[in-house]
Amino acid sequence: MTATTPRTKPQPLTRFRKMVAGVAPMRFATDWMLVLALVGLCVAGRQTRAGESSAGAAAPWELSLSGSDWQIASFEPGQGVAQKAFADGYPDKEAIAAIVPGDVHWDLERIGRIPPIYYGENSKQIGWVAGKEWWYRKSFSAPTEWKGKTIRLRFDGVDYLTDVWLNGQLLGRHEGQFTPFEFDVTGLLRAGGENVLAVLIHPAPSAVREAIAAGEWEWPVMHTIRAAYPYWKCMTNAGWDWGCKVLTMGIWKDVRLVASEGVSLANPIVLPQLEPPYNRATLRTRLSIDADQPRSIELSYRARCLTMADPPVMASHKTELVAGASQVEFSMEIAKPRLWWPNGYG
Predict the structure, then answer these.
(1) At what angle do helices 218-228 and 206-213 cross, to 10 degrees?
(2) Residues 125, 23 share a domain
(3) What CATH number has the domain bearing residue 268?
(4) Selection from 73, 42, 69 nearest residue 58 by Cα
(5) Which of 258, 273, 293 is the last residue of a domain?
(6) What contacts 5, CB < 8 A, 6 or more positions away?
(7) How far is CA 306 from CA 13, 34, 38, 164, 310, in A?
(8) Distances in whole angstroms, Cα of residue 63 to Cα of each of 31, 46, 59, 151, 306
(9) What single DSSP character describes residue 144?
């Protein structure tokens, strides 16, 4: 299999704010929420922790893989793949417990493998961590009811360069600390059976590790980081007046499996438009939809103000989908929107 193009984390529920200062006297209320749903197609449901029984209940649509039941093990660069650390039956004799979301340094400090990072100058003793490749590993069961459904494996954030395997098969590679990404694992996931997920975190670039080891100050290290990490890396890894130089690495945001029945929503964008006399507003929406085959669907929209008890505004429209990915745009009107004054204007 090949990796899908990294995409923004799909969110059926999107909260947006329109914050303006000194531009116009009034805008939307500070808290509005827009809910998107497919009529006749369930696209979201209760979230279930890995291993939680779904007996006697409808199959969950999301299975969280975050938690404290992960393991990590280190290898010299390139040795993990050579020793097939991604394989189902790989022995984890040297592995230690890990928490996701988390960071490799945090897991090592917790068991005493490295000294407390923020005590004295201990951070200068842990540069070896970023020179290793680290393998996260987790076994989990998937609901039997997911057989026949489309399943995607989603990562909200991995720091920084990672390769992902499921049940011994390479899914693909992702680069970038802050960009969510996903893989279609429909043909690989063992619904109702045991699965093994392995995530390789590649070592930090040697140029950055050498700059830190040489004792360079924050700004030179920051410039080295910018050159070595083309898809963004936290600049405070270079150190700051309130922190020390630590090249973070690990699965630092949530991981989940998401099931769907032929259609899934992703990348919702809401663009509010408001003009004088401010008694009506337009919400322009755009979202990506992935369909397994050509379909006719109806999208249902509900917008409500989070800070007022006003009834929600409802709208819907029908659209024709082609097989694969497509974009759908829709505009809905909001009558008498709640307004707010920017600081200093009222």
Answers:
(1) 170
(2) no
(3) 2.60.40
(4) 42
(5) 258
(6) none
(7) 13, 10, 22, 38, 9
(8) 29, 9, 10, 10, 28
(9) G
Position 320: which residue type?
E
Round to whole Å and give the CA distance between 214 and 95. Answer: 31
Examine the domain organization and report whether 130 and 229 are in the same domain.
yes
Domain interval for residue 298: 19-41+263-340
Write down the pTM of the prediction. Answer: 0.76
Residue 276 lies in a domain: yes
Count of domains in the chain?
Answer: 2
The predicted-structure confidence for 4-44, as pLDDT tens digits, reads as follows 433 333 333 222 222 222 333 334 443 556 665 544 332 33
**Residue 58 belongs to some domain of the structure:** yes
CA 250 to chain centre: 13
Question: Is 160 exposed, middle or buried, given 0-12, 13-18 or 19+ CB atoms closer than 10 A?
Answer: buried
| Pairing between β-strand 295-305 and β-strand 313-321 as defined by DSSP bridges | antiparallel
The count of residues in the chain is 346
Task: Mark whether 69 and 172 lie in a shared domain.
Answer: yes
DSSP 292: S
How far is the C-alpha of 82 from the C-alpha of 90, rounded, in Å? 12
Q: What CATH number is given to the structural domain containing 59?
A: 2.60.120.260
pLDDT in tens, 185-226: 999 999 999 999 999 999 999 999 999 999 999 999 999 999
Q: Which residues contact 112 (CB under 8 A, 6 or more apart)?
A: none
12 part of a folded domain: no
Residues 200 and 157 in one domain: yes
Going by the DSSP 8-state scheme, the letter that residue 105 receives in this structure is H
Token pair for 123: 């951070």
Amino acid at site 105:
H
The CA-atom distances, in angstroms, between 104 and each of 172, 237, 247 are: 21, 14, 10
For position 33, what pLDDT does the model report? 60
Q: Is residue 5 part of a domain?
A: no
